[in-house]
Amino acid sequence: MRKTDLDTPSLIIDSGTLRHNIEWMQKVADRFGVRLRPHVKTHKSPHIARRQMEAGACGITVAKLDEAEVMTDGGLEDILIANQIIGSAKIARALELARRVRLAVLVDSQAGVEMLERAASVTGQILDVLIEVDTGKGRCGLVNDEEIVALAGRVADASHLRLRGVETHEGHVPRGAGGPGELQERAVAAGARIVEVAEILRGQGHPVEEVSVGSTPAAPYTASVEGITEMRPGTYVFNDVNQMALGQAHPEECALSVLATVISRPAPDRAVLDAGSKSLFAEAARSGFALEGYGGFGYIREASGARIVSLSEEHAVVNLAAGVDFPDIGDKVTIIPNHVCPAVNLHDELHIVDGEDVIETWPIAARGAIR
Ligand SMILES: Cc1ncc(COP(=O)(O)O)c(C=O)c1O
């Protein structure tokens, strides 16, 4: 089948760009001697996770138990659930999974540790945990050294938990960064902080084998910090407009597009596409130093001067500045989403294309896996 024969809206992946992105991040990890454990929330596909493993990844990261279960069924064997697992039903599922794969979860509270310990002591298992440290994002994770040391002590006392290491998601790094230099500085600071935490814990006698960081914009910088052992970027596999806004990806390094059809040209300065918030995801682009003032709801490859100025559920309204050459009614266009991860979660399938040909179609097996 030809790409243009696909019904719209559909997700298409350029196979060469996908391969390039997978290999590129593996090279970054190899250059710094750290393990790559890609976050699969971006693609939600065991097919792509297996390609990342074949390229050299040590395992995968997921955000949710649902995702971990889909990936386990898809043959992945080493999984970090980079999240707090709270509540008896979820903990029972985690312990069940830990019988099937090498598993670890995060902890950032005494209450969370106690829940895990209680359940694991009933089943007689030993569960690996990493202490989540907040290096600036302001989400989960502990900031304060005394609290981190106290939590590590609580894990050490728990006979059914094993402290594997420390973890941070330095997703705050690009927020408000004025340029690549500042981004790099913040990423290195986040890396240095998590290494410092690991050293403090080792000083207290805790064996900290894993020092894990994870974020695509920060990846080439945090991984350079001596003492980091593992990185967990996710978005790099496809890239998106947010990555373009940071100057870290050109359109040709964005592997995924939403294929859409021009369905109306109701005014000289307006075109309408059949892809709205239910296929592109209505998230404004991150303002970045490399795409100043961009502000659209996705980047149209065929007409970079045209702006998607608004989305309704099934329509994208495109503003055509005077002189912009735009495809006609019935023509298809390809749009790079602003934030690729939630856009993927709206679709059932990924169509893999080589040039103009669709060579494979893969289900997005963990689509909607939010529990
Ligand atoms: C815990 C954790 N690790 C790693 C990542 C990957 O970051 P990115 O999406 O920038 O690749 C995320 C992203 O949400 C995350 O939450």
TrEMBL record:
| Domain D-serine dehydratase-like residue range list | 255-354
**Organism source for this protein?**
Candidatus Kutchimonas denitrificans
GO BP annotations of the record are: D-serine catabolic process
| Keyword Lyase found | yes
Spell out the PANTHER family in the cross-references.
D-SERINE DEHYDRATASE, ZGC:162816-RELATED
Organism's domain of life? Bacteria
Name the Pfam families for this protein. Answer: Ala_racemase_N, D-ser_dehydrat
The uppermost taxa in this organism's lineage are: Bacteria, Pseudomonadati, Gemmatimonadota, Gemmatimonadia, Candidatus Palauibacterales
Record-stated family = Belongs to the DSD1 family.
Database matches in SMART domains:
D-ser_dehydrat
Which of UniProt's keywords are assigned here?
Lyase
This chain belongs to which protein, by name? Alanine racemase
In the record, what terms sit under GO molecular function? D-serine ammonia-lyase activity
